[in-house]
Design a protein that fits this description.
By secondary structure, this protein is α/β, with parallel strands linked by helices. The protein has one domain: Alpha-Beta Barrel (TIM Barrel). 41% of the residues lie in helices and 13% in strands. The protein is built from 18 helices and 13 strands. The strands form three sheets. The chain has an eight-stranded parallel barrel, surrounded by four helices. Strand 12 and strand 13 form a beta hairpin. Helix 15 runs parallel beside helix 16. The radius of gyration is 22 Å and the shape is globular. It starts with a helix and ends in a 25-residue tail after the last helix. The structure holds 4-nitrophenyl beta-D-glucopyranoside.
């Protein structure tokens, strides 16, 4: 293109006069807004109407002391009986989608196909039909951490046989609900599922096998996902026209300093957390190269005869590559990265050679792992755009934790900041983000933190038997933002330059390629 024309176009772009056809603080056409929950965290009814026991039921009932407030989720927000109140809350929010998960053991109490629990199936039918009747699309997660206990008794995700069970469970879900469900997520945050086979009693099933159990679990999960994806493609897609993704969790890793070793540490941090799953699915089809090299070397040095990181056959690499229709991203926060040795021996943490820390200036929340770092969202999205060839990204979780007050200014600020940064990633940088999900619709059971951490746009009165839901200030903010299809300009203006100048070239995969959209 002629240089003069090119420069004029660049200028016009910067002035927002051309390009995407809408302003920087506006959402693109057909953007999806959603809010999320997960079965175990909200449903309750843990042993009623034929539901089987899962690993979280077992974990909590045998070790109440492993939960911060010694509470359980036997009743929780009782969505099993009050799902209509959840639907009403979604209507009030004005979202076009609801992300929830199926409880495997509510549908298949033994985990296997020998028993199909009619009441469980009817519960999800009623929820799905209720949503569709008010024009809300269901986005359904098949696995949000609640494995049927009988399958854990066989070794859970470290046993490759689980891929058979998962494929069969997925086939039941597609057959029963796929006529109405068009958005599927196979696994929620598989890195956390696998960590539960490494870190002992943090999460169910509380296996302690760091640097071994977690790598094995991931190996099975990736194959389970791929088999469900292939099954859908072969048997269901032509009729049902749905899409399948995975919801991957990642911190943004910011190099501690500009030194090449810190930049490399940040890259490794991302590869060992996000790339562990994203590289097999959206990249080369295999684990990240740096992971393969480091775990192989460490395993050898430990005198092992095989690498702790299992190998995929060439056939599996081919099958996994491209096995998602969209990239589900659960992003909450950032961390600083430097090179060093940390964590148990052996462990994924130690294999990564990354030592993380927090910047004391980043505002805290009620969860100690979660600090408010809105610009990390923009960097995260741009990293995915550049690393994995700009796939369609659906933000499947993003949210803020406090004590549950209705006047939740901290949450409003969090959402304004993160959503503004997402809009910059879309409208300025050209990231292909197609939807955004708030975690969570309602205050719920926060795993080993019990009810001490609240993420909801709506509060739940746990002292009342009917568990009434009440809109917080953030719910009203959301409702307005969606109705106006934009983040309020005054808020956006404040955040226009929220990436500190000195941070801008810290990472080699930095963004700012504003012309990609229309080239
Ligand atoms: C995610 N961490 O979990 C889950 O998908 C949700 O079920 C959960 O309620 C939500 O985020 C908020 O925590 C996480 O310690 C649990 O870094 C722990 C961490 C991150 C995410």
């Amino acid at each position: 293109m002629h240089l003069a024309i090119w420069m004029t176009l660049c200028m016009l772009w910067e002035m927002n006069a051309i390009g995407v056809g809408h302003e920087v603080h506006e959402f693109p056409p057909n953007f999806h807004f959603s809010a999320a929950t997960a079965a175990y965290q909200v449903e309750g009814a843990w042993n009623t109407s034929g539901k089987g026991e899962n690993i979280w039921d077992r974990f909590i009932h045998t070790h109440p002391d492993w939960i911060l407030d010694h509470q359980n989720a036997d009743i929780a927000a009782d969505s099993y009986h009050h799902y209509q109140d959840d639907i009403n809350a979604l209507v009030q929010l004005n979202v076009s989608m609801y992300r929830f998960s199926l409880s495997w053991s509510r549908i298949l109490p033994t985990g296997d196909l020998n028993v199909i629990n009619h009441d469980g199936v009817e519960y999800y039918n009623a929820l799905i039909n209720g949503l569709l009747s008010v024009k809300i699309q269901p986005m359904v997660t098949l696995y949000h951490w609640d494995l049927p206990q009988p399958l854990q008794d066989l070794g859970g995700w470290t046993n490759p046989i689980m891929a058979d069970y998962f494929e069969q469970y997925a086939s039941v879900a597609f057959s029963l609900f796929g006529d109405r469900v068009k958005w599927w997520i196979t696994f929620n945050e598989p890195s956390h599922v696998s960590s539960a086979y490494a870190d002992g009693h943090q999460f169910a099933p509380a296996v302690e096998s760091h640097g071994i159990g977690d790598y094995l679990a991931t190996h099975t999960i990736l194959q389970s996902h791929t088999r469900a994806y292939e099954l859908y493609k072969k048997q269901f897609r032509r009729k049902q026209h749905g899409q399948i993704g995975m919801a991957l969790f990642s911190f943004w890793y910011e190099p501690l300093t500009r030194s090449p070793t810190d930049i490399a540490a940040a890259e490794r941090g991302l590869e060992f957390e996000l790339g562990w799953f994203a590289n097999p699915i959206f990249g080369s089809g295999d684990y990240p190269k740096v992971m393969r090299e480091r775990v192989d070397i460490n395993s050898k040095a430990e005198g092992r005869v095989r690498s702790r990181l299992p190998y995929f056959s060439r056939d599996w690499i081919k099958r996994m590559k491209g096995s998602c229709d969209f990239f589900g991203l659960n992003h909450y926060t950032s961390t600083l990265a430097t090179t060093g040795e940390d964590g148990e021996k052996p462990s994924r943490e130690r294999d990564s050679g990354v030592v993380v820390s927090e910047d004391a200036s980043w505002p805290t929340t009620n969860s100690n792992w979660l600090r408010v770092v809105p610009w990390g969202m923009r960097k995260m999205l741009n990293y995915i755009r550049l690393k994995y060839n700009n796939p369609p990204v659906f933000i499947t979780e993003n949210g803020y934790s406090d004590e549950g007050q209705l006047n939740d200014n901290g949450r409003v600020e969090f959402y304004s900041g993160y959503i503004s940064e997402m809009l910059k990633a879309i409208n300025v940088d050209g990231c292909n983000v197609i939807g955004y999900t708030a975690w969570s619709l309602i205050d719920n059971f926060e795993w080993n933190q019990g009810y001490t951490k609240k993420f909801g746009l709506f509060s739940v009165d746990y002292s009342n038997k009917t568990r009434p839901r009440r809109a917080k200030k953030s719910a009203n903010f959301f409702q307005e933002m969606i109705s106006n299809n934009r983040v309020p300009e005054e808020i956006f203006e404040l955040l226009r330059d929220s990436v500190p100048e000195e941070n801008k070239e810290k990472h080699p995969l930095q963004f700012h390629v504003p012309f990609r959209l229309w080239m």
